Structures are given as structure tokens and as C-alpha cells.
Amino acid sequence: MLIANIPLLPERASEQAAQVDYLFYFISGVTGAGTILVFVLLAYLCTVHRRKREGEQTPRILGSHKLEIFWSAIPLVLFLVMFAWGVVVFDQGYAVPADAPEVFVVGKQWMWKMQHPNGVREINELHLLVNQPVKITLISEDVIHSFGVPAFRDKIDLLPGRYVTTWYHPNKAGRYQLYCDQLCGVGHSQMIGWIHVMEKDEYDAWLNGKRTETLGPTDGSLAWEGRKLFLKLQCISCHNQKGRAPVLEGLYGSTVPLRDGSSVVVNENYIRESILKPLAKVHQGWEPIMPTFAGQLEDKHLNLSEEEALIRLIAFIKTLGPGQTPTPNEKFPPPIGAPTDPSKLPDGGKK
Ligand code: HEC
Ligand SMILES: [Cu+2]
User: Residue 177's beta-bridge partner residues?
Assistant: First the structure.
């Protein structure tokens, strides 16, 4: 469509972008035409009905129902079209395809930290595969930020303490700007970065290179790193088959009955809350014995913040299927560079 190529807008690099643009053109067109109509009529009527001679009286006009209905109904229809069309486009922006790989983004003053499913981490840059829908789950470590990619016509606010989700279907290789779209402090204007959308070969080469460059021999996928944390933090001492705490297999997406008689569907936010505030929602039939892990998840040696550690634990718990709970006494070699100081462990290294 010719009109969609007017270079007033940023480049379009996702399936969503064209949809947003067509709606934008429609709204601009209708309101623009409305404005022009009003001003043309104003000029015309002022000229035609100007006072033509001294002492001329204005006729008394008592209104017209036909006219009123006419100028109420037409805008109503136009606005309803905008509304319905907007709902459809908005809805598409949230309907994440079920099989899309998930990238986690943590925003903080003033940088973006990305974690890919295979464990690769990036800062202020996000490499994506062209024509591959990708789910993006985001959280903030401090204040409200907004992850805005004009070329995808998508931006989403990051909130402290709560995961939010969006998705992209990049359809054009290239390099696109990433902005923080929410004034978030003095360094706000530096909270920018790049989205690289790559062809398959290029992307695989990048991913492999990045993996060998940044990941140690024992480092694995996000879920695997979460498994290591699960063992290291001794979650396994309760969450095993022995019955002190619920086994977490198949937890994600299930419905958990709570003590107070209500129930929740398990999502990322529930798991996060269960780890940081275990008493906020207690699983019915279990004792509230789980200690809070708030303040214990950060790992300065691995340069891993609390939110990033939580993301790993969640990635692990999400993929935990029947029979996959590690055995409680499983030994794990600490990854290279991991803290060896036992007092850093939640049980103070008593075990
Ligand atoms: C001292 C024993 C204990 C330890 C250690 C422990 N938990 Fe728990 N956890 C429990 C109990 C008991 C429950 C169920 C009662 C409740 O909801 O608080 C629970 C609930 C949960 C839930 C919610 C599950 C559900 O069915 O509602 C999650 C998720 C969870 N724990 C994760 C963890 C993680 C991750 C760790 C390690 C960082 C951990 N737990 C360490 C005892 C423990
Ligand atoms: Cu910001």
C-alpha cells in the first residue's frame, strides 16, 4: 500500500507495525478531514452569511432534529470503527503465540538486561531471529521504565515487582532503536539500546559466538541455571518427594487452592511472590514454614541481581515436568567464578 510507505514514521520491522500504521492513518485521516471540513465550512459560511447591509437582522433558527441526528450518528459510527479496530490491534499485541521462545528483560536505572532462553545475557542490546515470534517478559528493579521499540510499534511499561509480557514478530532484518519511553531519572536519556533482527545463519553464528564467549563450561540454559540455584539455595531440602512441601512438578499453569479458601492460577508473578513472600499466599494443606528468600538471591560474583536470579528459578520451575525434581543429595560442581564462601548460603553453610 503506497500510503503506508510515507516516510513520516519510523521503519516498520514487525507484523504488528503495519497494523498499527493503518489504524493510525485511518484515525489521522478521519480527524484531519473533520478539521478541514470545519474550517472550510467556517470560512464559507462566514463569507456567505456575512452582514450585507446596515441594520440587517439575524434570522431566528430553532434547530433541526435531522441535522442533529446526522452530525451525531456519523461521528459515532466513525469513533466506533476506531474503537473496534483499536481493540483488534491491541488484542493482537497481547496474544502471545504459545510456542514462542521467551526472552526476559530486566530494566534498571539506567540499563536494560536481557536473558535468552539458552542462558546468553546481553546489556542494552537484543538480538532476535527474523520471522520468529518471540515472547518478551519484563520486570523493573527500581522505578517504572518502558521498553519501546518504534520499529515494532510496541512499547510496554515495566513495573517493579510484577512481570508484564509482550511479543514481537520481527519480519525485517536490520538494526532498530530501543528507547526507555518513561522518564525514569537523570540517566533516562541514556537508557537506550539496539534491537538487532538477523537472518538465520547470521543469528546462529552470533548466538554460538556469544555462548562460547560469555558462558563457562558448566553454564547452561536459563532453566538449567535455575536448577542450579534451586539446589544451591536448598529449595530441594523441602520441595522433594518426602512431603515437607509441595513438589513443584507441573506447577506452572495449574490452579493452587489457598488456605483462605480462594485459589490462584500459577504464573510467573505467583512463583515470584511465593519465593519472596511465602506467607502472602499459602498452599492449602501445607504448613507456612517456607522462609523468605528476599535479599538472598543476588550473586555479586556472577553479576546476577535478585530479579535475574528469580527469572532463572522461574524458568526452572516452569519447565519442571513429572519426575524431574532433582534428588536432594545431588552434588553440583560450582560454576567457575561462583562464590565458594559458605556463609553466603541461606543456611549459613551448616550443611
Ligand atoms: C523450609 C522448607 C522450604 C524451603 C527451604 C523452600 N520452600 Fe518453597 N514452600 C514450602 C512450603 C511448605 C510451601 C507450601 C506452603 C506455602 O505456600 O507457603 C512452599 C511453597 C512454594 C511455592 C508455591 C508452590 C505452591 O504449590 O503453591 C513455590 C513456587 C516455592 N515454594 C518455591 C521455593 C523455592 C524456589 C525455594 C528455594 C529458593 C523454596 N521454595 C524453598 C517450603 C519450603
Ligand atoms: Cu527507564
Answer: 194
pLDDT single digits (tens) 106-133: 999 999 999 998 888 899 999 999 999 9
Per this entry, what is the length of the chain?
A: 351
Distance CA 90, CA 20 (A): 9
Ligand 1 test: best mutation among 266, 290, 320, most atoms within 8 Å of CB?
290
Q: Which CATH number goes with the domain that contains 146?
A: 2.60.40.420
**Cis bond before residue 110 (omega within 30° of 0):** yes
Q: Is the CB of 274 under 6 A from ligand 1?
A: yes
Give the pLDDT score at 118: 85
Total domain count, the chain: 3
Q: How far apart are CA 163 and CA 248, in angstroms?
A: 20
Do 89 and 10 have their domain in common? Answer: yes
58, amino acid identity: T
Say if 61 falls within a structural domain.
no
Does residue 350 lie in a domain region? no
SS3 117: coil
Statement to judge: residues 111 and 17 lie in one domain: no
| Residue 126 structural domain | 102-214
User: Which of the residues in the chain have pLDDT under 70?
Assistant: 1-7, 328-351
| Three-state DSSP class for residue 203 | helix
**CA 271 / ligand 2 centre spacing (Å):** 25
**In sequence order, what are the residues at sequence separation of 6 or more whose Cβ sits closer than 8 angstroms to the Cβ of residue 213?**
none
Q: What is the pTM of this model?
A: 0.81
Residue 50 falls inside a structural domain: no
Residue 60 lies in a domain: no
Q: Which atom of ligand 1 is nearest to the CA of 293?
A: 38
Query: Do 194 and 272 sit in the same domain of this protein?
Result: no
Task: Tell me which of 229, 263, 274 to substitute to probe ligand 1's pocket, judged by most ligand atoms within 8 Å of the beta carbon.
Answer: 274
Residue 111: the pLDDT is: 94
Nearest bound ligand to CA 107?
Answer: 2
Q: pLDDT tens, 135-158?
A: 999 999 999 999 999 999 999 999
Q: Which protein residue has the closest C-alpha to ligand 1 atom 34?
A: 235
Say which DSSP state 231 is in. Answer: H
